[in-house]
Design brief:
CATH architecture of the largest domain: 2-Layer Sandwich
Bound molecules: adenosine-2'-monophosphate, calcium ion
Radius of gyration: 17 Å
Oligomer: single chain
Distance between the termini: 34 Å
Number of helices: 7
Helix content: 25-40%
Order of helices and strands: HEEHEEHEEEEEEHEHEHEEH
Structural class: alpha+beta
CATH class of the largest domain: Alpha Beta
Number of domains: 2
Strand content: 25-35%
Largest sheet: 7 strands, mixed
Length: about 270
Amino acid sequence: MYQKELETAKRAANEAAKIIRDYAENESFGVELKGKNDLVTDADLASEKKIIEVIKTEFPEDQFLAEESNTYTRLPDGRIWIIDPIDGTTNFAHGFAPYCVSIGFWIDGKPKAAVILEVAHNEMFYAVEGEGACLNGNQIHISDEREPSRSLVATGFPYSMFDLVDPYLKVLKDLMQKTHGIRRAGAASYDLCCVAAGRVEGFYEYGLSPWDVAAGALIIQEAGGKVTDWTGSDNWLFGRRIIAGNEVMCSFLKDQVQAHFSEKDLEV
Ligand code: 2AM
Ligand code: CA
């Protein structure tokens, strides 16, 4: 099922990547600030326009939740495409990989198909509900490592909600000592793909938006992994707090954040 949606998302991602690469090669794009540390470039806007155009040609009735034309504060019923035209805009603006196009297709609050294209290395991760996850045509699976001391953990540094930086740093300090190491790639959709492909064992971050996680979560679930919020429940799409990994890593990371964040800061 959802093969047409998957193929359309792949085509939209490839078309968007062409645009993003052109901007990257010409290095003459405009960069604006949406808020503190919050960049938007001409490439984000052109990429989003192209993705929506490609999808609308095939599915004119569908709804869209896209970063640069953000419209919804909760997920409406029915068919919706959740799009980040460039995830990792700060990376992109500095010419620092990874940066991704992320396209998730949902129906009635459930993910059905997902594509994440890492533009600099041309890695296409994708999944369809019930059919597994792939990277460039090959099936991927999460890591089966269950020992935190042999695990690599990905995270993102806070760029907003700075009042939570202190507990975040305490978690980071603990994890430095309890794991194989921490990686901060700068693009949440890519971090989620790294969990799905078994490159890292776990991922946690706060402050993320639906378009950062809508596609990656399905790719992880279809690769055999789990996605939760920081209380262990499933409010991760709009909840701004996410944990991902295998069962053991999710529970380990939940214990770490719960040890340092106050009860009220674990939820929106
Ligand atoms: P973005 O590039 O689409 O904004 C980095 O930790 C992750 O957080 C990226 O996925 C990035 O996605 C997201 N993010 C959201 N707002 C951000 C901001 N103002 N600065 C840096 N990263 C941001
Ligand atoms: Ca973005």
